[in-house]
Structure formats: C-alpha cells, structure tokens
Amino acid sequence: MTSLHGAILDVDGTVVRGDERLPGALEGIRSLRAAGLDVLYCSNNPTRPVDHHVARLRDHGVAVDPWQVLTADVVTVEYLATEHPGSDLFVVGEPHLCGRLRDAGFALTEDPEAADVLVASIDREFDYDRLTQAFWALEAGATFVGTDPDLTIPTGERLVPGSGAIIDAIAGVASREPERVLGKPAPETAAAALERLGVDPEHCLVVGDRLDTDVALGERTGMTTALVLTGVATRADVERADVRPDYVLDSLAEVGEILD
Ligand SMILES: [Mg+2]
User: Fold this and answer.
1) CATH number for the domain including 91?
2) What's the 161 CA to ligand 1 centre distance in angstroms?
3) Do 75 and 104 form a contact (C-beta atoms < 8 A)?
C-alpha cells in the first residue's frame, strides 16, 4: 500500500516524444491509476491551449480531463494577474501566450518604452529586431518575467531551443537575470499542481525527464521524485547533477516499482 495519493507527470520526454507515445507510458499510467493515484500532466510548453494537450494525450490513448493539464502559460498568466495586475506587457512569445494574456485582461504593447513587464517565452519567429526591442524594454525599466526555463525541447529526432534559450539571450544582452521564471520548477507551479490534485507534497510523486525542472520541482517541495531516461537527461547527468532523484527509471513503464 503506497503513501502516494497523487502524481505529477511531465509530458514531453516522459509520456510522448514528438508524434510518438513512449514505450511503456500507458502501462506506467495504468499502474499509477490502479494504485489509486490521481494524475496531473504538467508541461512547460507554453505554446498550446489545454484542449490541444488533452486531445494530443487522448490521441495517444491517455484518458485525461482538462483539469488534469497544467501548462507554463497558465501558471504565468495567474502569476501576472496576482503580482502585476493591470500592467502593460511587452511579450516575446507565440500567439497562444499573447491570446491568453489578452483574455486575462492585460494590454499588450509593441512599444518597449511603454512596457511595465517584459514577458519572455519560446517564440519560433524570434529574431534580432525582437531581441533589440526586448533589450530596450529592460533598459527602460520593465520587470523581466519568463514563462519557463526549458533550454531545449525534445522533438521527434533532435532537441530544439525552448523558452530558456530566448530568456537567456535577452538576459545576456541586458546583463540582467529575470525577476521570475514560471513553469517547472517554480514554486507557483508546484502549488498549482498540488492544489489541483488536492494532495500534500509528501503524498505526491513527480516523474519527468529533466533534472533541473521536473526533479527540482519535487525536490524543492518535498515530493517523491523519479527521473525517466526517455527524454533529455541521461544516467551520466544524474551523476553530475546537484539535484538527486529518489528513483531513476528507464521509462515510465517501471513507475509501478515505486508504488510497492
Ligand atoms: Mg520533459
């Protein structure tokens, strides 16, 4: 009988990779459900609506309701609504993120000098001019907020740059670190995930393929942590890292071993 009542699962590199479901993913999710754990899917991908994630998981045979999906854009919007209500935002980010911020009542400006907050995120149209404008927004005194720290994203074949790469480019030119980066492993994300699951951290398992986001989120909060080797991190990374997962699993298929 396990003392775990909830599980936070990363999506990319843990359940799916590109268009493929990872081997053993369904088996692992079934063993979590069979042991009575509620599952929340927590992704640092800020570029897609929750419905997209729900449909994608369902296409892979994973039954999931919208409340079970928590993404970095949702946490970022909640953070800005709490900490910077009514602010004018300069956004380096994709259309979905901009739309969510507008829906939450924020004004988006294209004038770097007029921005109260610079929001930085993955933007696959990012270029030199956008970097210049973001730099000028920070020079003019805007607060610097990032959606998530992921430097890379696993796609089908290769890793590609994520939000962290763009945040770092802006931080580099401005010689200034962001005030806040949301997504995993931010405490706001841990709190939102635990609230949705209705569990305390000591009764929660977090499983993911990244040490610096998934495992760090759990370690900082006092959850049980498991790294899967189906995405970004390797066994060699575990040896080198400051963040130590409680378990290292070849894939999600082995998650049942933690529950015994
Ligand atoms: Mg991942």
Assistant:
1) 3.40.50.1000
2) 13
3) no
